[in-house]
Amino acid sequence: MADRIALKLQPRTTLGKKVKALRRGGIVPVHLYGPSVASRSLQCQRQELIKVVAQAGGHTPISITVEGEKEEHLAFVREIQWDPIRGNLFHVDFLRAEATQRLSADVPVVMTGESPGAKEVFGTVMQQLYSVTVEALPLDMPPELSIDLSSMVQPDSVIRVGDISLPPNVSLLTDPEAMVARVELPKEEGAEVGEGDSGRASPPESEQPQG
C-alpha cells in the first residue's frame, strides 16, 4: 500500500485577477475536483504545497482535508502550473478519487543493481522506458517500480515490461513486450586499418600518374 501523504487546504474566496495578491503573499490557488465532488476553489501556503507535490508526484495518493471540515478527500496531483517568469508555483489541480474504485496511473521505473552482462563487455545499461501504466486502487498504487539489473547476465540481455514484478492487486496496462532496458556495447574509437593500407584514400582516376 502506498504511504499516506497529508495536506490541509483552506477555503478560497479570492477569485479571478485578485488571486495575484494571494500569490504575492506566498499563497497558491488550488482546485479540487472529481466525479463525486463539485469543483472547489481552495488555497495553500506555497512552501507546504511544494513539499507535498514533490513528495507525491502524480501517482501517490494525498489525504486532503479542508480547514473547518471533517471530510477527508483522497486525491492525486493532476496539473501543476509554474510562473514562467519567476519560476514560482502558480496553481495546482487535485483529482479526487474513490478509495474503492480502481484507476490507472503512470508509475516511474527505476533501475537497481548492476548487470554482469554489461560488465563483461565493458558496456552500459540503457534505460528505454522510464514509466509504465498500471491499474490499482488508489491506496495500492505503487510510488515506483524497480528492475534488478543483476538478472541481465548476458551481453545481449534485455528487460521487458512483463519482467517487472508488480505488487499485489496491481495490474499492468503497458505492452508487456515493450523493452525497458538493454545492454549497449562501447563504441569503437576508430576503424581498423587493413594490412598494406596506409589509411589514405587513393586519388581519383583523373589524378593517377600517367605512364
If you had to describe this structure to a student in words, what would you say it looks like?
The chain is built from three helices and 13 strands, in the order E-H-E-E-H-E-E-E-E-H-E-E-E-E-E-E. The protein is mostly beta strands and 211 residues long. The chain folds into two domains: 5-96, Ribosomal Protein L25, Chain P (Beta Barrel); 103-184, Ribosomal protein L25, C-terminal domain (RNA Polymerase Alpha Subunit, Chain A, domain 2, Beta Complex), CATH 2.170.120. It has a six-stranded mixed β-barrel. The chain is elongated. It starts with a strand and ends in a 27-residue tail after the last strand.
Report the CATH topology name of the largest domain.
Ribosomal Protein L25, Chain P
Radius of gyration: 27 Å
**What fraction of the residues are assigned to beta strands by DSSP?**
35-45%
Oligomer: single chain
Low-confidence spans: 191-202, 204-211
Head-to-tail CA distance between termini: 86 Å
Major sheet summary line: 6 strands, mixed, barrel
The secondary-structure element order is EHEEHEEEEHEEEEEE
Tell me how many strands there are.
13
CATH C-level category of the largest domain: Mainly Beta
If strands are numbered along the chain, what order do they take across the biggest sheet? 1-3-2-6-5-4
Mean pLDDT comes to 86
